Amino acid sequence: MVNLRPLTAGDLSDLVQLKDCGDWSQAQIVRQLAHPRGISLGVFAPKLVGFIFISTVLDEAELLQIGIMPECRGAGLAGQLITACLPLLKGQAVERLMLEVRESNTAARSLYQRFGFVEEGRRKNYYPVPNSPDEREDALLLSLML
């Protein structure tokens, strides 16, 4: 049984422990949790196993980061987090949700495609390729009209 709920400063130590799920510093996480129009949800089973961070400005939002512990991936938790955020975004009068994703991240791209995200652009050579310091890969820019 999983539980989704807003994340608070009390979840900070658990978020920092999810090193395999994201690359944010503790200071960045603290800022996100304090963002007055940000959305930060966690998925608990029963401990924190995943999260989503979204920032909103006026009628647009950006999915900044979504992470699920490796041993919990493939169970639909990322989709549950996105599904839970959509009515919250609509409640803030957000009309468009944007994100960027590594071109090689086929699992994430498949997830976003299922939600109806469409590719709107590309950032050439944006991400460093892990374990290949001289190589870089493109970021795909996706958006979803709400």
From TrEMBL:
Its EC number is 2.3.1.266. The gene is rimI. This is [Ribosomal protein bS18]-alanine N-acetyltransferase. It holds the Pfam family Acetyltransf_1. InterPro entries: AcTrfase_RimI/Ard1, Acyl_CoA_acyltransferase, GNAT_dom, YpeA/RimI_acetyltransf. It comes from Neptuniibacter pectenicola. Acetylates the N-terminal alanine of ribosomal protein bS18. Residues 2-146 form the N-acetyltransferase domain. Signal peptide: none annotated. Belongs to the acetyltransferase family. RimI subfamily. Its main location: cytoplasm. GO terms for molecular function: protein-N-terminal-alanine acetyltransferase activity.
